[in-house]
Structures are given as C-alpha cells and as structure tokens.
Amino acid sequence: MQRTPAFALSALALTGALACGLAQAQASEPVIGLITKTETNPFFVKMKEGATAEAKKLGAKVVSAAGKTDGDNAGQVTAMENLIAAGAKTILITSSDAKAIVPAIKKAQARGVMVIALDSPTEPADATDALFATDNYKAGELIGQYAKAALAGKKPVIAMLDLHPGHPVGAQRHNGFLKGFGLQANDAKSNELSRPAEVVCMADSFGDRAKGQTGMENCLQKNPDINLVYTINEPAAAGAYNALKAAGKDKNAIIVSVDGGCAGIADVGKGVIAATSQQYPLRMAAMGVAAGVEYAKTGKKVSGYTDTGVTLIAAKPMAGVDGKDVKTGTDLCWGAK
Amino acid sequence: MSSTASKLPPLATLGPFIALILACVFFATQSERFLSAQNFALILQQVMVVAVIAIGQTLVILTAGIDLSCGMVMALGGIVMTKMAADYGLSAPVAIACGMAVTMLFGLINGLLVTKIKLPPFIVTLGTLNIAFAATQLYSGAQTITDIPAGMTALGNTFQLGQTAIVWGAVLMLVLYLVTWFALRETAPGRHVYAVGNSPEATRLTGIATDKVLLGVYVLAGLFYGIASVLSVARTGAGDPNAGQTENLDAISAVVLGGTSLFGGRGMILGTLVGALIVGVFRNGLTLMGVSSVYQILVTGILVILAVATDQLSRKGVR
Q: Which residues does B303 contact at the CB level (< 8 Å), separation at least 6?
C-alpha cells in the first residue's frame, strides 16, 4: 500500500507530460481529433492512415482515439473529452452508437469544436456539423443489380449474411441490395430488414469471418439450393465461401459484398466474390482533415452530407451494370491512390 | 429418499444432458432439416474451437481458478503460426509448433503468477487477456493473414462416413475429450486436480505439491488453446486478428453449462462438451428457424444462470 502514492505520482507525471506534448503540438499546428469505433478494424486502421497522411501534407496534427469494441459508446465519449482537452478544434467521429453519442457531440460543439461524422451518420444526422460517408443503400443497390444480371433469369434462392440487429449501415446495405435486385425492400431510412420470399435464410455474421462461415453453413443446411449470397462485408464473404466450398457448392452460388478493402478486392480477383461495392475510408478521412484545417485557418465550417463515393468492382462485367475491373479496384482499394 | 434415487447421478450431473436433449427435441419439431447426421456433424465442426478451449478452461476451473485470457491467447497462437508460415516460409508443423509454444508460454506465465506470487487467477488472466490481445494486434498489424500452406488447414478437411462429411478437427476434438476424461478419472495427476480445487490446504498436507499441479494445469490449458488455434486457422483458412473476442466467455459458459462448479473441485469434462454443444445447437437451430441471433444469446444467459443455481442448490443438499 505504501507504494500507491508513488504510483499515483508517476501516473500523474506521465499524463502531464502527455498533455504538454499535445499542447505544444497545438501551438504550432492545428490539432484534428479522430475517433474511430475500434483501433483494430482494418477499415479504421486505413482511415487513420488517410487522416495522418493528409494532415502531414497540410501541416496539421492528427490525434486519434477509439472505443474498445464496436458499440463502446462510453469509450468514445471519454475519447471526445480527452481530445477537447488536447486542444482539438475539429473532431472527426465514426460513432459506435448513433444516438448515444449525441449529447457528447453537443457539449463539444458548445465549446466551439466542429464535429464531422465519418462513415456512419448520427441520429439525428444533423447533430454533427457535417457527414462524409458512403451511401450504403446505393452500395447495396449496385451489388443487387449486378446479382440480378449475373443470375441471368434463374430463380433467385438468396441467403443474406447481415451485420447484427439494429445497425443502420447493415439495414441500408441489406435493403439496398434487395431494391437493386428488384425485390420488395424498405427505403434507405428504415432500420428494419426486409425479407421477401426469395430470401430463404438470414443470419448475423457480425462482419466476422468465422461467424459468417457458421451462418452460411447453417443456411446451406436450411436450403441447399441457395444460388445467391449477400454478405455485409468481405470477411463475412470469405467465411461464406469456405462454407460453400466445403459443401461443394462454390460453383452453384455467387457471393456479393460491400466494402472494397484490398484483401476483399483480391478475393474478387480470385473468384471468391463475384462483385463488391467499394467504399473509400481514406478519402473520408482526408476530406475531414482538410475541412478541419480550413476551419482552424478561416473559421469556416462545413455542413451537410457529402457522398464519398462507391464503385462496383467485378471480375466479370455485366451488361447494363456500371462497374470497374479488379485492376482499378486494387489501385483504389479503400482510396489508396 | 429411496435407495434407487440416491444411486442416480445428482441433477447437476444430469441437467446438461437433459437440456441438450430437450433443445434437440424442440428444434427437431421446428425444422425438418435439424435432425440429420450431416447437421450434427456441422454443429460439431462449429463448436470445435470453443470446445477445445473449454477443455483447458475446465481444468483451470476445477482448481477453483478461472482463465479469462483463453480466447485471446488462442487468437495470438493463430496469428503467430500463420505469420511464421506466411512471412518466414516455415513448414506447417514448425509454424504450428511456434504458435503452440507461444500459447503454452502464456499458460506458464499465468501459472507462475498464480502459484509463485499468489495473485488471484481472475486478475492475472485479465492482465494476460489484454497483453495477448495487444500482441495479436501489433504482431499482425490488424491484418488477416491468408497466404498459408495447405498443411495448416488439413484439420479443416473432411472425410466421408456414409453420407456424412465429417471434419478431422471435430474428430480430434472428441479424442481430446476422451483422453482428458480418462486422465482426470483414472490417473493420479487427474485426481490431484480435483483435490487441489476441493481443498488446497488439505491437499498440500497430504504431501501433494499443489503448486506443481496448478502450474501444470495452466501450461496444459495453454497447450489446449494452442490446439484450438490450429483448429481455428483450419476452419476459417486464415489467421484472424479479430478471432477470440467472444471465445473466453463462450468457453466459460460451456464449462458452467456442463455442470462444472465455479467453486472448484467438482465437475466432469464430458459435461463441458455437452455445454459447448448446447450453445452450438441453439445457434444452428435458431438459424434454421429463421430467428435472430440475439435469442441465442438470451437463451445462453438463462441456461448459465440455471446451471450455476443448480450447482449451488445441490451443494446445499449435500451439506
């Protein structure tokens, strides 16, 4: 117990030193805060890379923080407070919980901080100053249209490997896919997953390879004639492919997905995934940093929704469906170039 | 109580089997696809990773400990072995040995901290859970590793038994359960594990080196997590830095559902297998029924509480 004060002191000293370091950075160059859902999801790793590269170019400093797990709102609120303390005048946030983060955003804005949502909108969407994000409904529509053309008139028997219940991005991609395919679907505002008769199986993959595989195995058990698989992202798609291949059905079914990460595009090249809708986290982050630097220099805020673009990437083009080839997808993967 | 009733196994022993059978009967009435050899082979293959982790977890819990680090240590093992193969071109057996060495090292660290410095297992493994997670992320750069030799995924291959395709990994899992069952039941070290969990002080006084038993249990648990890493890599065909996130609690659930007492000293390894199967049966059955995965979590939660309550009540009964 005697050691406790010493520990406390050194912890205090460390925090102090850290704060000074941040404060010093603020004096010379604007600080842009970046809060992602987790530190470990490759999508957010890329986003951080994009933000840091853009900041270096513009003479700003990115300080990043994240929740511990997807859905960790408290962690994001703490990160927000720390970033404000560190002198960030602009905070870019990919909110884990669209509603719960709003009070913390309001507090930040009251202190003159511009808050921009990246990738996921808050609820209400106008709680942040601006939103730079993929149009997830459109991303779904693109792979739906592609799948329709690829099935070439065959009767669709569809399995859908979703994210997890109640997530707006999951619902938008899901419903957009059905809309693009020409089936009954809720609109982009709905968080309810539509389920027309052609969808014979739905499972939650949590965007995870192993759980995607388990979901697909169970779906094949339910209906071995599945010929079209929608997946929320490419890790889930890779899992679904494992399940199809193990069942000897990888030739009977096509898999479509959304994300467009470099590994995912490689899977399109290998024929694991027929087509994917590619989004651009590097671009979102770079635009956010540029807006932050502009705000620091001129005091001018950005507002409204900016679509950061989505492109269909497919190894085999389909007539009447707009898309780019694997080469282009690789060059652009998540906005790399 | 009649003499026949006292010869029957207590409720805590029968409970898990009854729950599993009831769940199977229920799903069989809900989906005509549930009751088939192929579907059961599928469930075995889906639970094999958690089930093997749960063997290690059972050993630890039998000594009245707990290992929160198991899932993350498993993930780290998977990353180490796939990176060794992909980056340094090591052959599958050598790469796998490297990964398993790392998981056993974590077991050794857990064991040393518990026995030598007498730290509570909950805290020790909470620490190593975070260390293993960070090491996994740092070493992999948060990237999935897919470029691995075919030998690493051999246990994910299947063989035909009549109409049914069975994964080799599931067979290995069943063999491991049988071996552990035999060792716990019939060998002196196995009985010592129970003794240490029941009363460490009494065990020490009978001349058994309790520290050695404990240390052995943690290292052995690390070995099982290493085998689980191999199964995980074989199953998904990749080293996944995001694996292991839910496996620690899933494994603890399986142990508790299987009737092993969290207070140590009482339990059965085959019950753990049943516990893991219960969770797998619900996930499979609910998907076949078209019900959201959230219900699976709900049912697991209720069953875990029922299992612990049964254990506690049966303890009161024997007092």
A: B19, B257, B278
